[in-house]
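worker-03 picked up job from queue 'complexes'. Input manifest follows; four sequence lines, order preserved.
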Amino acid sequence: MTEASEHDGATPERGAAVPGQDGHGGGTGDAGVGTRTRSGTGAGAGAGTGAGDGAEAEAGTGAGDAGAWAERSGAARPGRAAAPPVPRVRLVDVAREAGLSKTTVSAALNGTGRLSPEVREKARDTARRMGYRPNATARQLRAGRARLIGYVVGELADTPWTFLESPYFARLTGATAATALARGYAVVLLPAGSLQSEWAALPLDAVVVADPVADDRIVEDLLAARIPVFSDRSVEGRPGAHWVDVDATAVVGQTLDHFHAQGARRPVLVVPDSTTRFHREVDAAHRAWCAAHGLPVLSVRAAEPGNGPVIQAVETALGVGPDRPDALLVVAEASPPLVLDAARRIGYDVPGDLLLACVSEDETAVHTEPPVTTLSLRPDAVAEAGIAHLVAVLEQGLRETGGALVPVRLDVRASSVRRG
Amino acid sequence: MTEASEHDGATPERGAAVPGQDGHGGGTGDAGVGTRTRSGTGAGAGAGTGAGDGAEAEAGTGAGDAGAWAERSGAARPGRAAAPPVPRVRLVDVAREAGLSKTTVSAALNGTGRLSPEVREKARDTARRMGYRPNATARQLRAGRARLIGYVVGELADTPWTFLESPYFARLTGATAATALARGYAVVLLPAGSLQSEWAALPLDAVVVADPVADDRIVEDLLAARIPVFSDRSVEGRPGAHWVDVDATAVVGQTLDHFHAQGARRPVLVVPDSTTRFHREVDAAHRAWCAAHGLPVLSVRAAEPGNGPVIQAVETALGVGPDRPDALLVVAEASPPLVLDAARRIGYDVPGDLLLACVSEDETAVHTEPPVTTLSLRPDAVAEAGIAHLVAVLEQGLRETGGALVPVRLDVRASSVRRG
DNA sequence: ATGAAAGCGCTAACAT
DNA sequence: ATGTTAGCGCTTTCAT
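worker-03 finished. Artifact:
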């Protein structure tokens, strides 16, 4: 079967899509063009080529307007609401129009092969004039991968999209998408606790699983489907799974050391009741730190990560017993201004009789009075390290599942510095 | 070329991927299998089929474990770090293994065609046992579309990913992804102010453009590429562009009416200096409302949408002249607790001598003392209406570009209710 | 009821 | 230097 006859039978309309035809006569009769091409195959091809040559000079006027033909074509069919959508221009259409082969045009457009400058230019020009855009799916099929990565968080599976409302995940999500895109990968958003059915139809090269919870099946499902997984340290050792993580022990250590240096002897910890590795490690690190310093283990668990439950836990933490705490570390995404207000309502002066620090990426912390000390988990760094690793695995065939620990950053502000 | 010979030359390794082989002997010599299949073509195919039949009984134990073979296969090659990745199981592999044709297996798996129950079951069972997963890209190519939609916001193009940190966009993004996914479309995140180069390689069926700014090229570029655009009302009338929007006039009207009913006569507006349709309309509606009520037009523009600039604008707004305002409407994504604190620092009692309302999706508003009145722009409703429209356009070929106006919702809380 | 073959649009060996 | 051809993996007429 020749290229020319590909248009017969299966897709008789295609001839009408040849750009030169609309560009040629302008108002010479849209219906006439359609009729002509529908009847004679060879004639359609011939007319298209001829018209294209004529239109070439005209197209020279606007260099960058790849959409010129498309717009013209659309404008030529104003009232036709029920008309079938114009078929897209394919490589073969450009090739025929330019009087070249698919190979040549492909090489010209991709900058591959050895072509004479004139031919390359002719191919490119024709493609531009016709508004040709390569079919991404066909390229992907050919390439064997889609350069698409999934992004899913483990926490908050009962409210599958609220993770975006947490400053930490918002940042992590953005940074992941940004870094990936810079490497040529697009990110698709999946709901927390995604099921097979939600990603099975997607050509995912890999999936990033942020903070998986202890009992979710996501990681296993993905690995069973032989999709590389990039997650936190909890996946360490699983074949096909890779990790990057923050140093949870350092989170606790750095902050409590800082409190201690300021004279605090009764620091209290507020942490959500979560089964992510991070929260479990924070808890363990806290106990260890207190034991090592001979201080009481004061902590309150928030029922959930939201502002409401965390503020409530803060109130509980600050109200305990006759011996009130003298420092508060909130390891949960709560709004710093709200935490500060809560402490005040209970009667604390910050930092007078309570040092305050929050693990948070929320920029409101710098706008309170006093500004609130925060500990950043460096979502941008996590994303960068993760995507770098991902690219290495996908493109250099890296097999090692070793991961990386990203250091956290303590931003000391007035809320945790004893005055005087 | 027969099906059997497809494995020759091009992909000599494939024979080794037949599941039965790994399941068969366990430690009988992994290298031997590789060598065997690499040398003899006919032998490889034959061995694979035979081994598969043997493994069939074994696989009957676990019904739902689609990944059983995959895991077994991986476990069988523990030390081989440099081994080429195991090729994926294709439809033809399943067909050969089951002794059926591609057609039959495809029909069996998709529930199409008329097949005998036994054959259908056999095909399905074999596919499951082999861990077959259809190649999404091939399906997309066949189907002519990828069920993939892009999502990009217009605002904040200088910091292309911070939009996720705004509660409104976080919600809109999540709701868009959720609604789309429920309809079978996945959402890819694009940076604010995306260029052609960032989405050109993606098989996007459509793109959602949230709040385009006046001068950005995104919408034009997409339309020129004949990609359907779903955006706000600012794209009204453009062929190929569809819209859903919030009623910006109602935002101002409802809130100022509410203030007015509470006795406020000097309401002041804080709005960011942005060229989105929403902000421009808010500004216009404000002037109109003030004129209609014979009240002075008090407003302050924040340089940018962030917390810092908006709080600064609030301070300016509340400090103006000898006649202090008696109500404040913040139409910008600022943290309600911060706005409240700012008002207090300047010396206002809320709601005693200042009524306060914020256009915000930030849930911290309910946790302040007093809770802050908010006006929700209903991102969930916007997303739902938008995606519903998108699906209608993409799947029912809807051509009308008419859009929909989503009503806003005023949540009156103590911050805007005069006491007594 | 089942299978053979065409072809979605593209790229890359392999001619010429 | 340019063209011909064979697939990527799947679904779908159309025969049988």
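worker-03 released lock.
The longest helix of chain B spans residues 41-59.
Confidence is low (pLDDT under 50) at residues 1-82 of chain B.
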